[in-house]
Amino acid sequence: MKVTVKVPATSANLGPGFDCLGLALPIYNTITIEETVLPGTGVEINLMSENDVLDEMIFDNVPKDENSIIFKAVQMLYNSIGQEPSELKINVQSQIPITRGLGSSASVVVGGLIAANKLLGSPADTTALLSIATEVEGHPDNVAPAILGGFVLSSQEDDGTITYEKLNWPEEWDITVCIPDFELSTNIARSVLPENVPLADAVYNAKHLAMLIQAVNTKNEKLMKQALHDKLHQPYREKLVPGMKEIMEAFKHEDGIIGCVLSGAGPSILVISYKYDLDKIKSTVRDIWEGQSIKTDIRTLKIEKNGAEIIE
Ligand code: HSE
Asked: Which of 13, 104, 140, 286 is the S-S candidate for 96 at Cβ 3.0 to 4.6 Å?
């Protein structure tokens, strides 16, 4: 038996929502899991990029055996019902660029879990899948919108349970995703974060996250512009993302630009705007990055309202 799942890309954090906010985007990975009948063949993982040549090269460094995150997630699901995965063939058709802060690892974890769950007769519900995916990823902010679609607030509580709430992203707010041609692994981007932060910075983010939730609920661009600031991760990551400071600076005082944030752990940047010239956003970002010999892929995208779905 064979199951194929299509999973959207995601952008986490949205500034102040570090590790708890994320939205789905219409770029997809397609994950197929097949139970092979030949005993002793073990797990076989194939990764195919439909994106660009660069990713093919990066894929060389991604584990394709029992050490892969997709296999770990699948194994946890099997173990949760007292079984062990045996002979599996896993294929990933990837459109989501990897190590760019667009949730490519979350997408394969989610795709693997949903496919394996179907193969097993659907023993796990959404919350259980979310919980395993969060365990593998370490935080729920990418996996929640990958599973549920849309804009999602999620939290892993101290007892391990996941709380999530879908929020309404105002249709009128444009999301321009600016993807540079260099990679930044989440591990490195997390390694520069301090273990402890000043109380004032924690309070700053709490205030701004509260503003953000109110701003999206009331479609208040002015409040959103004020809300999209962060002191818990972006200031520390700035040194890992050439051009980030200049891009943020360039849009700071522009009417119609609601905000500019790192996508997940970076290095991609989201520019959120309202009735603003989208070509101008693209040329501004392109000029800054190309001025530093960084190639770009910049797309204005609608939020993907649907989460992962079984397509075959
Ligand atoms: N919230 C995570 C981070 C997202 O910023 O490290 C990356 O996976």
From this structure: 104
